[in-house]
Amino acid sequence: MARFDTFVFDLDGTLLDTLPDLVVLTNAALNEQGFPSRTADEIHSFVGNGARALMYQAVPADASPEQAEAAMRRWMELYPVIGNKLTKPYPHMEETLAALAQRGIGLGVLSNKFDQGVHDVIDAYLPGLFPVQYGECDEIPRKPDPTGLLRCIDELGSAPARTAYVGDSPGDVLVSRNAGAFAIGVSWGYHHADALRKAGADVVIEDARELLQFAVER
């Protein structure tokens, strides 16, 4: 079995279930622009490619680009107000991360969420565990571009061959491939396990504690 001393994680749908807050936030932004609410299932299907992609899909099909951009701006304004009150870590995630950290495993986060949002939610729910955290920003393009993952690996003092990237979407599998890392898919997130296997995940796990079997101390 392949073993790794560095683990980098996707955020939404992998470490944390943020969907309940995203539903509240997205519908608040839509309603303030005069648009109807979306269902949780619809918003679920929009998650994974960043806030702008989410909102551009959430507005009605006949909305103008200007209206979509206005809804996006309002989403960003409401984010610190609505926050992450309904977010929670997935089962066994906190204990697994603590066990990995105790073994000296390098831990990082790379998400398509906007960069400040990544830091806010990690600080709130998984503080002190990730010395390297990146979301989408000017220097870090969205996944599956490997720039962000390669930067995480470098800052953790590792190499792609010693790194597993853990995520819940086909895009997470692809960024792993693009960076030369091992792709671990998770079945508890926002995408079906079959989609991860079809995308080429090296393995798909069903419980966070399974990550421990892939860890090797530095």
Automatic annotation (TrEMBL):
UniProt-listed InterPro entries: HAD-like_hydrolase_sf, HAD-like_sf, HAD-SF_hydro_IA, HAD_2, HAD_sf, PGP-like_dom2
Coiled coil regions, renumbered to chain: none
Signal peptide: none
GO MF annotation, one: phosphoglycolate phosphatase activity
UniProt keywords, alphabetically: Hydrolase
Pfam families membership: HAD_2 (PF13419)
Superkingdom to which the source organism belongs: Bacteria
Keyword Aminoacyl-tRNA synthetase: no
Keyword Hydrolase attached: yes
GO biological process entries: DNA repair
GO cellular component: cytosol
Name used for this protein in its record: HAD family hydrolase
Species the sequence originates in: Eggerthella lenta
